[in-house]
Prior knowledge:
With 265 residues, chain A is an alpha/beta fold. Chain A contains ten helices and nine strands. In chain A, helix 2 crosses helix 8, helix 3 packs parallel to helix 5 and helix 4 packs across helix 5 (114-123). Chain A is globular. Chain B is 42% helix and 20% strand. Chain B has helices at 9-19, 35-43, 59-71, 82-87, 89-97, 124-128, 146-163, 173-177, 193-200, 224-244, 264-279, 297-303, 320-330, 350-360; strands at residues 3-8, 24-27, 52-55, 76-80, 102-108, 139-141, 166-172, 179-184, 216-217, 248-251, 258-261, 284-289, 291-293, 309-314, 337-341. Chain B has a seven-stranded mixed beta sheet with strand order 3-2-4-5-7-6-13, with helices on both faces. Chain B has a five-stranded mixed beta sheet with strand order 10-12-11-14-15, sandwiched between helices. Classes of the chains: A alpha/beta (265), B alpha/beta (361). Strand 2 of chain A pairs parallel with strand 9 of chain B.
Amino acid sequence: MKNMDIKDIIKPENLVYDKSELQIDTIMHYCPGCSHGVVHKLIAEIIEELGIQEDTIGVSPVGCAVFAYNYIDIDWQQAAHGRAPAVATGIARTNPDKIVFTYQGDGDLASIGAGEILHACNRGENIVVIFINNAIYGMTGGQMAPTTLIGQPTSTSPLGRDVALNGYPMKMTEIIATLPGTCYVTRQSVHTAATVRKCKKAIKKAFQNVMAKKGTSFVEVVSTCNSGWKMTPVGANTWMEENMFAEYVPGDLKDNDIQKPAIGN
Amino acid sequence: MGELRLMKGNEVLAEAAIRCGCDAYFGYPITPQSEVMETLMEQRPWDTTGMVVLQAESEVASINMVYGAAAAGKKAMTSSSSPGISLMAEGISYIAGAELPCLIVNVQRGGPGLGTIQPSQADYFQAVKGGGHGDYRLITLAPASVQEMHDFVKLAFDLAFKYRNPAMILTDGALGQMMEKVELADYTPRRTKEEILDQCGSWATTGKTSGREKHVITSLEMDSHKMEQNNLRFQEKFKEIEATEVRYEAIRCEDAELILVAFGTSSRICQKAIELAREKGIKVGLIRPITLYPFPSAIIAELAPKVKGFLSVEMSAGQMVEDVKLAVYEARCTTPVKHFGRMGGILPSPNEVVDALETKF
């Protein structure tokens, strides 16, 4: 192997990794070190592996992932801030044969869209929800989110989140898990090769649940925002492990094999 | 002759939606329009035509569910009353910005704020001048009878799909609660998947098949130059709508010296006022805009040099009167334009309208 030259390396039989055909060559708008790119890759791979490109409709949020539609080669709808679960409800109810997923950040899902996500999950809408929780508003420049940790500095909590002023970090995934409409609720991360593989399995299961019409599957991905956190990518991963995981404990919160009652319509 | 029934305006909105092949209704209870969803839930169209009906958690969710369904090429609608429409403003702007067809019904009540549950026409500005942010227009239809409440559901959907633009039926609590004889249309089946592909396959999120580019429904464009081009394209569309879709009714205008301008419930009160005024020897006619946007400016301009004045009769402090004034101004006339209205859920009486004609001109 060590003596291979470029002509050998590019031979198809020596290929050891290829990107999904659903991943679009586009100029990367995410910061280096950001978790979004990894999760986008996983979703593209899963849609390709499940052979559901023609049936999948993605709903992108407001936030950094607003441009998710530039990266994965499927039909997309871009939703108003926080409203992706309502938009997904509209698609899924009128297109029960489609696989619909939302992709939302913590500002979108846990703050302005807290109402929509709770009710969509409580109705057991047959959708996948991918929840990227990096404890900060990335797109607007690092403001405090509902998931910001106590003491965590942000541009709107420069001395750190103060409980007296701002209350406590919001554990959406724990709340969502209490709702009978959800069949699968899990918390993952994508900061090591092992966790990426594990996260892929979780997201794949979520898509398979929707294909089996089992109700809402909710996958939180505890993520880094090294730009917003003002850290290096490696430093951000370490900080996440040491601080985020204590508040947002990785693992499955719920995995039911209960079929949701069929909707008349 | 279609089936004849005695029905409430709100009930008819639901019945007409089912009968015109509507795919989905998303709504939230609010007086005085709750009978729309109640009628749908009683009719259970999902068992017959396959139409989806869903009670959403809020008006905000309702309009975004409409967005999702409409973006997939479906015929989707919602209904609400004034405060609920305010909550939908962001979603309506997104729908207009993403160029999606849908129907929004506003059964108006008195405002501002929580106001009253009695009828009003004070959401005219909200309907025809914007309501949400950005340069957009709603094709706005104003029914004046329960029959028109029925007929305009199909018309609104047809116009919405023709122009890929949201359409609104702007009515009020009086018409919503009023019972009248109505001739119902025969059932039009919902479009098949193939028919939806024929009609919307070039843009809707019907699933990315091989052989076509992915479809992205969005109102976002970070490049200002491209965003301006989008806006210019919208403006071209609005110009075409203004040139093509104006609808109005002219009543006894041939010999009229004074013209009432009124829509919906007010226009019916004005018809009685015309009778009373003419008994007194005042020659009065009525222009009833059926489309509030596009506004029937041309007929106002045509009448302006011939008449002594216009009286805009509205259940508001005077909103449409501004469009009447603009039409007269565009005609380079100085014909006086006055307003008479009642607010807060009060219906003007025909005698009050006649008094206003006598005192203001």
